[in-house]
Amino acid sequence: MDNSDSIRALVSVHDVMPETLEQIQALLERLTAADISAVTLLVVPGADWTPAAIDTLHDFERRGYELAGHGWRHRISRIGGLRHRLHATFISRQVAEHLALDALGIVALMKRCHAWFLEQGLRPPSLYVPPAWAMGRIERNALADLPFLQYELFSGILSAQTGRLHPMPLLGYEADTAGRTPVLRLWNRINRHRASTVGWIRIGIHPHDLDLRLAEDLKADLHRFSIHAEYGAVDAAADQRCRLVTSARSPSAADSSMSNTRSNPR
Ligand SMILES: [Zn+2]
C-alpha cells in the first residue's frame, strides 16, 4: 500500500446497551481525542433501558453522534438449523438473532426496532445493522417496505432507495480468545489491502475492544485512516458518480459503466 490518506473510513461502535454505556463513553473519549467525530452508534433497543440510560442516548445525539438500529435483543433464543449453528460457532457466537427467524419475523423485528427510537423521542434512524451483520432469510426487495434508508451487511452497505450494494471492506477487533486473534489480524490485513482499491473501509468497534488483544491494531487503524465519513456519504458518493457518468455519456452507456464499476466504486 499505502494510499490510506485518500480512503474514507466509516467508524461504528457496536452493541450500545445500558450494560455497555461505560465502555462506550470511554471509546468515544478516545475517538474524540483522535479527532474522530463522525461515529455511528449501533443501539440495541430490546435491552433493559432505564430512563437514565435513555438520557445518555439523547446526550449522544446532542453531541452529534448518529444512532442506528442494531437488532432487538442482540441474542438468540434458539438456533435455527445447521447453517445457523455454523455461523454461531465461527462468526456470531449467539448474537445473530435474524438467523433464528423467518422473513416475516425479521421484518417485524426491524419495524419494532425503528419504532422504538421514535417512542423514546430519538431521531428516526436511517441505518440498520443486523447483529453480526447477518440479515438472514429475507429477500432484498422486502427491505423496500421498511423505514430504514441503508443496511450494513457483512459484504458492504446496501442502499434501500437504489437497491445497490456498495461492497466495502470491514475491520474488526473483537479478539476475545487467543484463537481469534491471528484470524482477525489476517482478515484485517486483507481488508486494509482491499480498501486501497475500493476507496472506503469500515472500522467496526465493539465495546470491549480497547481491553482485548487487538487494541493496538485498532488505535493504529484509527490513526492510519484519517478521513472519516458518515454512512449517508456512501449513497451521496454513488449518486454523484452516477450523475457524472450520466452527464458524460448517453444513458445506456452510463448504465453499463455503472454495472462495471459496481465492485470497484472509485
Ligand atoms: Zn452487535
UniProtKB/TrEMBL annotation:
CDD domains: CE4_u10. It comes from the Bacteria. It holds the Pfam family DUF2334. InterPro entries: DUF2334, Glyco_hydro/deAcase_b/a-brl. GO terms for biological process: carbohydrate metabolic process. This is Deacetylase.
